[in-house]
Structures are given as C-alpha cells and as structure tokens.
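Example with several molecule types.
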Amino acid sequence: DTAVSQTPKYLVTQMGNDKSIKCEQNLGHDTMYWYKQDSKKFLKIMFSYNNKELIINETVPNRFSPKSPDKAHLNLHINSLELGDSAVYFCASSRQRLEGGGETQYFGPGTRLLVL
Amino acid sequence: DQQVKQNSPSLSVQEGRISILNCDYTNSMFDYFLWYKKYPAEGPTFLISISSIKDKNEDGRFTVFLNKSAKHLSLHIVPSQPGDSAVYFCAAIPNSGNTPLVFGKGTRLSVIA
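Resulting structure tokens for the full complex:
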C-alpha cells in the first residue's frame, strides 16, 4: 500500500493555466507538507499543515494555494502558471513531533510539472 | 543562505568499500538530523537519523556520526553495494514545533561493481 501518494505524476501545461496537484497519506499522520525541488535540485519547504491548519507558509507567491479538506489530504492549487514554476513538487507527512525528539517525514513520489 | 551543506555533489566508490558522505550545518538550533536516499523519479526515502544528544547511530550497513562542536555529520555505508547508488540528502530539524526539514543539495553516490 502506498503511504503517501500524489497525482498526477507528470503535468505538462501552458503558461497562464490553473492546475492542481493532489496528495493523500494513509499513515494517520497529523502533519503534511509541500516541498519544491527546483532545477538546482534544492528541496525547499513551501507549506505545512497540522490537522488541517496552516502552520508554515514560506515565501511562496500567492498564486500557490494549499487546501486541506481533511487530515489525510493536502492539495496544491496553482493559478496563472509561470515558466519558473516548472519543478518537481513533493508532498510529505509526519506525526506530531515529540518534545526533544524528531519525526521522520515520508515523501510521495513527486509531481513533475513542466510549464511551456 | 544554505543552512545545510553537502559540499560533494558526487562520489564514486568501489563495491565492497566504505562510502562516506559528509554534511555540514550552520544553525546551532538544529537538534535532529536525518539522511534520505533518493532514486530517480521517486520521492526521498528515510534512511537513518540521529538526535543531537548522541554522536553515533548505527543501522545495519549504515552509520551516522555527529560532531556537534564541528557542526558536522557523516553517513558511512559499509560495505557499499551497487544498489546503494542514489542521491543522498542530509536534512536537519530545528528544536521547535512542527518544523519542516531543511535539506542539503544532495550527494550522488555511484557504487561501481
């Protein structure tokens, strides 16, 4: 069974379009994340949701809007796509972090977005 | 400003030998460190972690060493196998709340048979 799944796996679209990427986790985790891996291969956090509530919103254009309908889902909607949005987007999830401890994040397979 | 640095973009090692992947960090608030392995067209998968209260954690062929005073950690793989060929990301978490991972740029390991 896939722990963290993303759809679609590949997305090719024209500049100016609006698109969504879906993410689902079946691990019972409380926290979900969206990361972007750019052309320089940096993996950077975009958003983090804990129990459907936004807790981290890095400096991301407001064309990007995450939506969490429930704890198991975190979707990413992108308006007015630009060439620079081309990247691989990874969803991840983790349990609530314990004080003084750490928590492994589990990643989805990634969505490869190409904006033409 | 890179808080987690992996200065070697690539590393080649003979099968059966030791692979040593290095990682340096600048933020003294990091207190938990992880290594992820990534194959092409897949998401990163967790490999091994270490808390800042330890200096070594071992899991089978994989050992992570942490030197807090030097702000340096390393991943040792011994013996290296061809299936270990992948990109390895070092990541760190600050000691507060539900914070995301801060990743290094990754090191591509090639294990040659």
